[in-house]
Target: 7,8-dihydroneopterin aldolase
Amino acid sequence: MRTRRIFFTRLAIDAQIGILDHERGATQPLHIDAEIDVAMIDIPRHDGIQEVLDYRHLRQAIIDECTRTHVNLLETLVDRLAARLISQFADVQHVKLRVSKPQAFADCVAVGIEISASRGDLA
Model:
């Protein structure tokens, strides 16, 4: 099966995440890197958005999932995000996600979690 990869690099989102007291009730920045493999049925013939998966919808789903509620762990968030993208978008075959917290530690640029999941993994 041919696939097309849609990717987002360093999508910045303010989210409620963390287990520490100062993280509860406040937001902090997250950076999302996503590679989303979409089944390619046909090559677009009319150069119209209706012929492809509109990446604006993928972006909005990522933002919605990251901001809908407080989450304690990055692991939980990245699992929920992968499951949502695969279940909400029928054409999505595989996702690779990297979610990072750039303000977690002063001595590194970021810390985060990466996951790779395919449609068959969620069955």
Notes: The chain has one domain: 3-122.
